[in-house]
Specification:
13 helices, single chain, about 400 residues, five-stranded parallel sheet, alpha/beta, five-stranded antiparallel sheet, 14 strands
């Protein structure tokens, strides 16, 4: 403990991280610097610096990382088509390495010996934060109070806060544990802990219920360059602004709601409700555009890697060499993914209905049912015969 003189803490200003700030100072007898990342969570960040300093921090960083998050973390995941367990678009998972990277940068700049986080010992986030730190600055130690202290729950934290003069707003405890950023909003806890319960009315904030969505569909066009979305309805937008605009459109039409039980990295099953309106639209549009721009074998090879890539992100291996290697293959495949997709938004669905590309591999002359002069149908007989050679031989055994 005596070797730790300065710590950088990922800080939200809530009960947990406020208590952690004071607990680290008392336990390690060290200086604490806080780092708050604005990832588009739409929460009021004004006053957090003052609160951190009043709780004992010697310095408080509040950094706007929205564009970096969208450009360098969300977009690479979208280019890869990554979906964990076939359903989850990785909204919380991909935010953690972005936060961890900035936390490490500040720790190195400030000469800190350790970083700290408020993730519990049951969840995935502890792994994600700590693997990021190990990959980027292995010399830094990590302090994880929920694995070290004797506090058992919220009541213990409230008592510690009162004893140490930490101001905690007196509010009705929320039934859910939520995580929000530019990409999504997640809900856990409350009635969701029983997988037989239907999610309650307060477990959604960004997306309307499909039955409450407009009765008329809305169409939106999305332009892509090298697999990255660059414009909505012809208007070029920055990465963060583009996602935000589609969040509004998707939420209005009830697009992006998901209720699932997933497998956490630590070994337990967990039920969560997710709202990912904008990136659900982007995922559908991007996948559709690949249909006319990607070579068949390139697409199939990339698709084989999607579950593995998604696991790496979910498990916290964003900065691992294997993820970077797969990303290089993915990004090479995306060089031809240029064009425009028109998507129909209606009652919870985002359905691509039209697509065009200057790099299109679609050849109408080849696929037409009418007469053509570019494809000799009799050639198919020999092709099929050769494909069946091994099957004929196998059947004789």
């Amino acid at each position: 403990m005596s070797a730790i003189k300065k710590v950088v803490l990922a800080y939200s200003g809530g009960l947990d991280t406020s208590v952690i700030l004071k607990w680290i100072k008392k336990t390690y007898q060290c200086e604490v610097i806080t780092m708050t990342a604005d990832l588009g969570q739409e929460e009021e960040l004004d006053g957090l610096e003052e609160k951190a300093l009043n709780t004992g921090a010697t310095k408080a960083y509040i950094d706007d990382l929205r564009e970096e998050f969208a450009r360098d973390f969300v977009f690479p995941v979208l280019r890869a088509g990554a979906v964990y367990e076939g359903r989850y678009l990785l909204g919380t998972s991909i935010a953690r390495p972005c936060i961890g990277k900035r936390m490490v940068e500040i720790a190195l700049a400030e000469g800190a010996q350790a970083v700290a986080h408020g993730a519990t010992g049951k969840g995935n986030d502890q792994v994600r934060f700590e693997l990021a730190a190990m990959a980027l600055a292995p010399q830094l130690k990590t302090i994880a109070p929920w694995r070290e202290w004797d506090f058992k729950g919220r009541a213990d934290l409230m008592a510690f806060a009162k004893e140490n003069g930490i101001p905690v707003p007196v509010t009705k405890e929320k039934p859910y544990s939520c995580d929000r950023n530019l990409m999504h909003l997640s809900f856990e806890g409350g009635e969701l802990e029983d997988p037989w319960n239907e999610p309650g009315p307060h477990s959604h904030l960004l997306c309307r219920r499909p039955e409450d969505a407009p009765d008329a569909p809305q169409y939106v066009t999305i332009d892509f360059e090298a697999g990255n979305p660059v414009a909505v309805d012809g208007e070029r937008l920055s990465p963060a602004a583009l996602i935000k605009a589609l969040n509004t459109l998707g939420g209005t039409h009830g697009v992006g709601r998901l209720d699932m039980v997933e497998n956490r990295f630590v070994g337990m099953k967990s039920r969560g409700v997710y709202e990912t309106p904008g990136c659900t639209i982007l995922h559908a549009a991007h996948r559709d555009l690949e249909g006319i721009t990607l070579d068949r074998e390139v697409m199939h090879l990339r698709d084989m890697l999607i579950p593995r890539y998604a696991e790496m992100v979910y498990y916290g291996f964003w900065f691992a060499p294997e993820r970077e290697a797969i990303q290089a293959l993915v990004d090479k495949s995306q060089e031809r993914v240029n064009g425009t997709v028109r998507v129909k938004l209606y009652k919870g669905q985002a359905t691509p209905v039209a697509r065009k590309s200057p790099n299109s591999l679609y050849n109408a002359e080849l696929v037409t049912f009418e007469e053509d002069s570019v494809y000799d149908q009799s050639d198919a007989a020999g092709f099929i015969k050769l494909q069946g050679l091994r099957l004929r031989g196998y059947k004789k055994l």
